[in-house]
Amino acid sequence: MKKHNPAGVAGPFATYSHGVELEGPHRFLFGAGQTGVRADGSVGEGIEEQAGLVWDNIRKVLAAANMEISDIVQLNMLLVDRADHARAAAVRETILDGHRPASTLMYVAGLARPEWLIEIDFIAARAS
């Protein structure tokens, strides 16, 4: 994986890279949007708990494909409330632990269920 943050483009504003290049044969995993919901269907309280659950769910999906957080090459984070950004980003930075995938942040009017505050989808890749 090669990260691209070229001169002439404003540097990344957070924990991401502008581009991630893959060479050679890779397995790809396209992760559906994960939300702050436990396996029993209960929803986390507040943005920090929901963000933690989102990342726990992402880790489990990655593990099912024998992948890990460092295999994520692109992610999209959707937030319902701009006021939640700093707290959601703090959880994300802790989980990514220096890994910088290509990333987009979107503020949306709502998610599929009104109690959901955050959703993250992703693409991961690992050499075959």
Total of helices = 2
CATH structural class: Alpha Beta
Q: What number of domains?
A: 1
Helical fraction: 10-25%
First CA to last CA: what distance?
Answer: 13 Å
| Overall geometry | globular
CATH superfamily: RutC-like
Major β-sheet, in short?
Answer: 4 strands, mixed
**Strand percent estimate:** 25-35%
- What is the CATH topology assignment? 60s Ribosomal Protein L30, Chain: A
Short description:
With 128 residues, the protein is α+β, with helices and mostly antiparallel strands. It is built from 2 helices and 6 strands.
Commentary on this structure:
- The protein has 128 residues and is an alpha+beta fold.
- It has a single domain (32-127), classed as RutC-like (60s Ribosomal Protein L30, Chain: A, 2-Layer Sandwich).
- The chain contains two helices and six strands.
- It has a four-stranded mixed β-sheet. A two-stranded antiparallel ribbon has the order 1-2.
- It starts with a strand and ends with a strand.
- The model has no long low-confidence stretch (mean pLDDT 93).
Relevant terms:
four-stranded mixed beta sheet, globular, 128 residues, 60s Ribosomal Protein L30, Chain: A, alpha+beta
Secondary-structure map:
Layout: E1 2-4, E2 19-21, E3 26-35, H1 46-64, E4 72-79, H2 85-96, E5 102-107, E6 118-127
Parallel strand pairs: 4-5
Antiparallel strand pairs: 1-2, 3-6, 4-6
Helix pairs in contact: 1-2
